[in-house]
Amino acid sequence: MKALIPYKKKNAKSRLSPALTLEEREEFVELMLRDVISSLKEAGIEEIDILTTPDNGVPKDLDVNIVLSEHDLNEAINGYLEQENEPILIIMADLPLVRAKHVEDIVSITEDVVIVPGKGGGTNVIFIKDPSSYQVKYYGSSFLNHCNIAKERGCSVFIYDSFMLSTDIDEPHDLVEIMLHGHGNSLEYINERFDMKTGKARAKINATGNA
Ligand SMILES: Nc1nc2c(ncn2[C@@H]2O[C@H](COP(=O)(O)OP(=O)(O)OP(=O)(O)O)[C@@H](O)[C@H]2O)c(=O)[nH]1
Ligand SMILES: C[C@H](OP(=O)(O)O)C(=O)O
């Protein structure tokens, strides 16, 4: 099996603009990518493909394969899946809360397709046993799309329910989850820039202006 991480650095994470500048977002997305790769490696995943755009900026020190595509996310991934004949774990780069144990659990599940929902209807991880018989359809409520595609193709499905893996870092309020549950490069980066406001209400990030 292999892992595939779709990755776009240029103007990454535009929804985080209220909290981070363009330069910070481009730095931060790379640190989240590093944390995802560390957890995959710790789980014993040896082959990792990063699917990215030609202006990618994937750091040279990562022990990964770079696959380039100019197509949009769905077309790029579907083009990749068509060529593959071994199980593929597609994991997004904005999941810094992922740990090796999650990956080990997911790849040991026997159903044809394992889907890890993201909050609000996204798909944060999908493990596809037979990639040539499946297609992805991200954006919108991609979780429902992916369940329906599996059904249409007669694939059995397991929904992997995990708070940490449902937490993709899309919007400023997601950053507090890194402060609460994160580790590694992304936690260090966020702790340099924010502290946590708590009170009767839930925890929130608060810019410190230190970085
Ligand atoms: N190869 C490739 N990866 C992409 C592309 N767009 C997004 N991704 C990756 O797909 C995953 C989920 O993307 P989003 O959460 O929408 O990330 P984003 O596009 O940087 O964020 P927003 O600008 O806030 O929508 C992340 O791992 C991104 O790096 C793309 O056009 N090509
Ligand atoms: C790619 C997209 O990610 P989100 O917009 O939820 O971050 C999805 O999961 O369909």
TrEMBL record:
What biological-process terms (Gene Ontology) are attached?
F420-0 metabolic process
Q: Does the keyword GTP-binding apply?
A: yes
Which principal EC class is assigned to this enzyme?
transferase
Q: What EC number(s) are associated with this protein in UniProt?
A: 2.7.7.68
Q: Which GO terms describe its molecular function?
A: GTP binding; phospholactate guanylyltransferase activity
| Pathway annotation from the record | Cofactor biosynthesis; coenzyme F420 biosynthesis
Please tell me whether the keyword Nucleotidyltransferase is annotated for this protein.
Answer: yes
Matches recorded under InterPro entries: CofC, Nucleotide-diphossugar_trans
Could you list this entry's UniProt keywords, alphabetically sorted.
Answer: GTP-binding, Nucleotide-binding, Nucleotidyltransferase, Transferase
Catalyzed reactions: (2S)-2-phospholactate + GTP + H(+) = (2S)-lactyl-2-diphospho-5'-guanosine + diphosphate
Top-level taxon of origin: Archaea
Which family is this sequence assigned to?
Answer: Belongs to the CofC family.
Q: What does this protein do?
A: Guanylyltransferase that catalyzes the activation of (2S)-2-phospholactate (2-PL) as (2S)-lactyl-2-diphospho-5'-guanosine, via the condensation of 2-PL with GTP. It is involved in the biosynthesis of coenzyme F420, a hydride carrier cofactor.
Which PANTHER family does the record match to this protein? 2-PHOSPHO-L-LACTATE GUANYLYLTRANSFERASE (PTHR40392:SF1)
Q: How does it assemble?
A: Homodimer.
UniProt-recorded name of the protein = 2-phospho-L-lactate guanylyltransferase
Q: Which organism is it from?
A: Methanolobus vulcani
Gene encoding the protein: cofC
